[in-house]
């Protein structure tokens, strides 16, 4: 008799999971509480999978042998609670797909920087000629890719929500970039719960695995004391000299990676992405390459010619000597801290949107040092005005991307930068952060 599988959520991961489950002989039912996008409906219909939208047929779902749920559905959802009470396994698409993949997994998580680092490592592996796929919290569904043809390597970006639904999965190389308060509403507003979620990237790793982590993080080194870690540990730091791992030689201004008594060096000025946070991303990527014994010259090339993703510290253009930078993906204060920290010019900062309970105090010193004026882009900007009113020369308000760009351009002078790094969600004025970034770029190019 076929094993019955219910898939909750008919987005990229859910539809990919359905495709793989069919291939592996499951009886598949897909259910989504929201309306399913037409492109996914047509895929499901083409697969002859039974599906429903704008409802959950609880009896049908709870009679399944196993449930795959979208990362967006919290464990506290009533249907998930009922499944747990019944003893029905509830897993993520990543957990499911990994059962059917023989690949070597390099997995990246962290509160900030994981997308950039994932793409950087993927770029490095591609350049080395490895048979590699890119999946997880980015790009095409992991399950879909496994269904269509397994790879020798997968680089997986993993959110805490995905990690929460992973139990038997084992990373070969695990990268933990940082842990800062985020998504605490999903973790009973307890930081220790969120930290434990991120540390799940270590589960099932053995002595053949490698764990790459930021040695200067506020939470990671302390959390590691609570785990029996069999994997080989490779820390990275710009403040400590490390016998093994990656560190910064401040005198030579070089990134240094020491692994198996071999040293790799590279000038930090040759890195494609500048700024302290991108140094960390480059360190983690370089370590992963050296663990696989990729050629030093190849790693040097990859770290120097990598192009960052859209909406993440993306150089848009220069207009009369003023640089415009799109960092719309910065939807929390910590991401914006990294953006401001990387700025080497006087900056007009565009900030605002839907505030997720932001504490702006960590930005005060950076704003005093680097920001000459602020443009608030949002419906309710009072909190930003109150926080920074006495720290910059001018604060102005805008309701559209075009208005924000025009005002920023008027306040900037040759040699300055205009930085869109909102520190907030986008839903008050835009569809999502991509829409916000695209409107910003369109407005800049129309100056």
Automatic annotation (TrEMBL):
One of its GO terms (cellular component) is cytoplasm. It is found in: Cytoplasm. Keywords: ATP-binding, Cell cycle, Cell division, Cell shape, Cell wall biogenesis/degradation, Cytoplasm, Ligase, Nucleotide-binding, Peptidoglycan synthesis. It is an enzyme of class 6 (ligase). It comes from the Bacteria. Residues 311-424 form the Mur ligase C-terminal domain. One of its GO terms (molecular function) is UDP-N-acetylmuramoylalanine-D-glutamate ligase activity. It catalyses: UDP-N-acetyl-alpha-D-muramoyl-L-alanine + D-glutamate + ATP = UDP-N-acetyl-alpha-D-muramoyl-L-alanyl-D-glutamate + ADP + phosphate + H(+). One of its GO terms (biological process) is cell division. Its main location: cytoplasm. Cell wall formation. Catalyzes the addition of glutamate to the nucleotide precursor UDP-N-acetylmuramoyl-L-alanine (UMA). Belongs to the MurCDEF family. This is UDP-N-acetylmuramoylalanine--D-glutamate ligase. The lineage of its organism: Bacteria, Pseudomonadati, Bacteroidota, Flavobacteriia, Flavobacteriales.
């Amino acid at each position: 008799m076929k094993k019955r599988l219910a898939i909750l959520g008919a987005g990229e991961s859910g539809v990919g999971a359905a495709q793989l489950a069919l291939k592996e002989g499951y009886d598949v039912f897909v259910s989504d509480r929201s309306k399913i996008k037409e492109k996914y409906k047509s895929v499901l219909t083409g697969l002859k999978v039974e599906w429903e939208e704008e409802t959950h047929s609880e009896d049908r779902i709870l009679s399944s042998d196993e449930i795959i749920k979208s990362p967006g559905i919290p464990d506290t959802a009533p249907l998930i609670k009922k499944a747990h009470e019944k003893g029905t396994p509830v897993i993520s698409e990543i957990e499911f797909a990994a059962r059917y993949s023989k690949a070597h997994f390099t997995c990246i998580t962290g509160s900030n920087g994981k997308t950039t680092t994932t793409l950087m490592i993927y770029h490095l592996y591609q350049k080395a000629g490895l048979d590699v796929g890119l999946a997880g919290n980015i790009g095409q569904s992991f399950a879909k890719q496994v269904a269509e043809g397994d790879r020798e390597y997968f680089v997986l970006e993993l959110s805490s929500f995905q990690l929460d639904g992973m139990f038997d999965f084992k990373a070969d190389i695990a990268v933990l970039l940082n842990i800062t308060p985020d998504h605490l509403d999903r973790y009973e507003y307890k930081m220790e719960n969120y930290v434990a979620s991120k540390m799940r990237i270590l589960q099932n790793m053995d002595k053949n695995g490698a764990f790459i982590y930021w040695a200067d993080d506020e939470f990671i080194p302390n959390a590691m004391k609570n785990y029996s870690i069999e994997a080989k540990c490779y820390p990275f730091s710009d403040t400590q000299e490390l016998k093994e791992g990656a560190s910064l030689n401040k005198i030579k201004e070089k990134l240094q990676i020491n692994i198996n008594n071999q040293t790799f060096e590279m000038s930090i000025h040759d890195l494609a992405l500048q700024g302290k946070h991108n140094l960390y991303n480059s360190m983690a990527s370089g370590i992963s390459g050296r663990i696989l014994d990729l050629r030093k010259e190849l790693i040097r090339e990859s770290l120097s010619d990598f192009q960052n993703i859209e909406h993440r510290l993306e150089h848009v253009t220069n207009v009369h000597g003023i640089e415009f930078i799109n960092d719309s993906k910065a939807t929390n204060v910590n991401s914006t801290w990294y953006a401001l920290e990387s700025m080497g010019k006087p900056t007009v900062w565009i900030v605002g949107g839907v505030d997720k309970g932001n504490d702006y105090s960590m930005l005060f010193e950076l704003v005093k040092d680097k920001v000459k004026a602020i443009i608030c882009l949002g419906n309710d900007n009072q909190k930003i005005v109150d926080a920074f009113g006495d720290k910059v020369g001018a604060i102005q308000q805008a309701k559209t991307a075009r208005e924000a760009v025009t005002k920023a351009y008027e306040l900037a002078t040759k040699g300055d930068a205009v930085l869109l790094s909102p520190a907030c969600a986008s839903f008050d004025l835009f569809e999502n952060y991509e829409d916000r970034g695209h409107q910003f770029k369109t407005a800049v190019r129309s100056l």
